[in-house]
Amino acid sequence: MQNRLLQKSLALITALIFTITAQGHSVDQIYMELFPEEQGFRALVYADAAYCLPEYRGDTGKKAPNRDWLLSRTESEHASLRKEAELFIRGALGFMQDEVGIDYAVNFPDYQNEPYEFHKSLLSKAILRIEIEGRYLPAGGSLQASWLDEFGANLLMYIMRPGAVEEEGSLLQIDWVEGGNEMDVGVQVYPFELGGEAKVEIEQKRSWLSFVKVGYQHIAGLDEKGGFKGLDHILFVIGLFLFSPTWRPLLHQSLAFTLAHSVTLALSLMGVLAFSGKWVEVLIALSIVYVAVENLWLKDELAKHRLGIIFGFGLLHGLGFGSVLQELLPSGKSLLPIVCFNLGVETGQIVILAICFAAFWWFRDRFKWIRISGSVMIALLASYWVVERIMG
Fold this sequence. Notes:
By secondary structure, the chain is of the alpha+beta class. About 50% of the residues lie in helices and about 20% in strands. The chain has helices spanning about 1-20, 65-70, 75-90, 210-220, 230-245, 245-270, 275-295, 305-330, 335-365, 365-390, and strands spanning about 30-35, 40-50, 95, 100, 105, 125-135, 140-145, 155-160, 170-175, 180-190, 200. The chain has a six-stranded mixed β-sheet with strand order 5-6-2-1-8-9, covered by helices on one side. The relative contact order is 0.14.
């Protein structure tokens, strides 16, 4: 009976690993800075340019093109991109005052200069900036924002102090709006006459849990097809667990890994470290291969060299985390998102380890075979990623 359970478990693990999409770190949130003002509001949206196009949106089999793709578009292709981007943003993003809709104008600041000046992201992603301007309704009321994207992208929103400048603005609030939801943005507009200025009060609050959620979903969140978004990081953590499912060596490895990726995450966001995102992704995949292969022959419960290697791999993974958070924080204004994002990542790791320990409890008598088969499958999948990322 136990052998049959073990076989079914291994078959399930195999099917899970090889059917989940093998995409590395990707940006699947839309980022927006909202500037409340006396007469109305202004917002600056940062979106993946390809995601604004219907032929890319919702197709996870296509890789998002980079900034060079955006720069190489013809005038007619740029015109089509602007048209589709406006249709997308108007269909997904809404503003209301006490549930009454507010119309807004859409502009594209990237196209105001010649040659066009597109946002430079950490991984050279094709980022398109969309500027939104709306006026408050004379009847007054609280300002709400709604977000609805049929393919599951979420909206990460910075609310800035009134009169703030984009590059130097003071953060008032961070909020996360899931698809299909609306939220009160903390702006109260008092009734005014047409042609006059509105009296506005801003409720100061700081939703630090929003970035905790971003970090957690980057590790343990699911995409629209039910696959894990942070599969490569999950497999790395599982590889650490398969080496020795006991608390002491696992704690030492986890601490070394956490310390390392916290350092490079902070340094990359501060602009101290510059790197090629492609090769960081390749090295991350190689780190997974190494850990999985070493599980097959290393006998020492906690070989001294392994801690140093895990620390080095943590530095690489921190750069990967930095690329994701940098895409969400184009202006890099606050340390709060860094701390909270990292806390979310650690929460995701704890969840994965808790699941591993629960599975180990049931199959502890057969763990030797689980360690071997699991490590082999992880090594094979990560090897595929290495080749895919080099070729891609």
